[in-house]
Amino acid sequence: MARPLSEEKREAILTSAAKLVATLSTGAPTAGIAKGAGLSEGTLFNYFANKDELLNQLYLEIKADLGKALLTAYPSNADIRSQSLHVWDSFVEWGAKYPMKRKAMRQLSVSERIREENKRQGAAAFSDINRMLEKSIAAGALKGRSSAFVGAIFEAVAETTLEFIARDPKERERYKQSGFEFFWNGISG
Questions:
Q1: Could you say which DSSP state residue 6 is in?
Q2: pLDDT of residue 149 exceeding 90
Q3: Residues near 4 by Cβ (< 8 Å), separated by ≥ 6?
Q4: How many whole angstroms separate alpha carbon 165 and alpha carbon 52?
Q5: Other Cβ atoms within 10 Å of 117 Cβ, number
Q6: Is residue 161 pLDDT above 60, yes or no?
Q7: What residues contact residue 102 under an 8 Å CB cut-off, 6+ apart?
Q8: What is the CA radius of gyration of the chain?
Q9: Angle ∠(27,9,70) on CA atoms, nearest 5
Q10: What is the DSSP secondary-structure string of 168-182?
Q11: Which fold has domain 51-188?
Q12: Closest CA to 83 of 184, 185, 186
């Protein structure tokens, strides 16, 4: 009879995978991921059938974690600026707290190894945020642009903000506020 799988070991594998994918991209070796988790490579394959399954599960786990962070206390009845500020603050706080997950997500988001069905599933968690972006676009300077374009602008400004926070953590709030103002002024006109 097979032994039950340990959730702690699974989490250790995903944590190790996030670190290595963040630094080595999706070419990170499974032997290195297993070693980082304190396990043998064979044990890794008890939890994930192959590397693609591991990467897809990592993608979904990070997306779910980010979605939870952005949507916790999301002010769905507030004005668009307040909703945008909530998403901004939540994203920056999550990104500052989990830099390896953020970097791994950037790598995974552009990887051909992530299945389309998982990309759709990962995006589904952000439907409220996408609606808010579409309302912002319709009302602002970026009228007629796609929500994907505005989302890319959001990510670019947020990444820059997070890089400056990492360099000078004492200025976290100032950078977070300034970054939001650049983003908001850009989309709202």
A1: P
A2: no
A3: none
A4: 33
A5: 9
A6: yes
A7: 22, 94, 95, 162
A8: 18
A9: 70
A10: -GGGHHHHHHHHHHH
A11: Tetracycline Repressor; domain 2 (1.10.357)
A12: 184
Residue 170 token pair: 């004492």
Q: 137 is written with which tokens?
A: 């676009």
pTM summary value: 0.88
Percent of the chain with pLDDT over 90: 70
Q: Which residue has the tokens 């999706």?
A: 26
Residue 64: which residues within 8 A CB-CB, separation 6 or more? Answer: 122, 125
| Sequence-distant (≥ 6) Cβ neighbours of residue 187 within 8 angstroms | 84, 136, 137, 140, 141, 142, 150, 153
Residue labelled with tokens 């996030």: 18
Q: What is the mean pLDDT of residues 77-93?
A: 92
State how far the Cα of 29 lies from the Cα of 16, in Å rounded to an integer. Answer: 11
Give the pLDDT confidence of 14-53 residue by residue, as tens digits.
Answer: 999 999 999 999 999 999 999 999 999 999 999 999 999 9
